[in-house]
Amino acid sequence: QVRLVESGGGLVESGGSLRLTCAASGIIFSGYAMNWHRQAPGKQRELVGSIGSLGDTFYVNSVKGRFTISRDNAKNTVYLQMDNLKPEDTAVYYCNSNPHWGQGTQVTVTS
Q1: Which CA distances in Å does 6 have to 15, 61, 64, 65?
Q2: Mean pLDDT of the region 60-87
Q3: Residue 95's pLDDT is what?
Q4: 18, 9 in Cβ contact below 8 A?
Q5: 3-59: pLDDT as tens digits
Q6: Nearest one of 88, 94, 96, 91 to 10, comparing CA atoms
Q7: By C-alpha distance, which of 37, 10, 6 is closest to 106?
Q8: Which residues contact 41 (CB under 8 A, 6 or more apart)?
Q9: What is the pLDDT of residues 91-111, one digit of tens each?
Q10: Of 29, 25, 46, 32, which Cα lies nearest the Cα of 90?
Q11: Which residues pair with 93 in a beta bridge?
């Protein structure tokens, strides 16, 4: 059974940093692209960025230069390092490897 478990969310002031972790089990992790999505209150879930099996990354424009995705295949873990956080980054953040989703972790950025 595939499981994706996010952790690391919390409350942070504008300009601060958080690192989210997604631990995967039940898949051959190294062979899969991993994605981070987020869903703000009243809005649709949106892609934040992705990391391919070879470590290639993609970011949406709103987070480019502030967020970094990395992976540790030995630990079956993907990370989302979020720097210079803004109030508009407030959302539930989800780890995804199609078709599987984690339960999400809340990130709240105060101004």
Answers
A1: 22, 23, 21, 22
A2: 97
A3: 97
A4: yes
A5: 999 999 999 999 999 999 999 998 888 889 999 999 999 999 999 999 999 999 999
A6: 91
A7: 10
A8: 90, 91
A9: 999 999 989 999 999 999 999
A10: 46
A11: 38, 105
Name the token pair of 105.
């972790």
Q: Which amino acid is at 5?
A: V
Contacts of residue 2, Cβ cutoff 8 Å, sequence gap at least 6: 24, 25, 26, 27, 97, 100
Which tokens hold the place of 38?
């987020």
| DSSP states along the chain | --EEEEE--EEEETT--EEEEEEEESS-GGGS-EEEEEE-TTS--EEEEEE-TTS-EEE-TTTTTTEEEEEEGGGTEEEEEE-S--GGG-EEEEEEETTEE---EEEEEE-
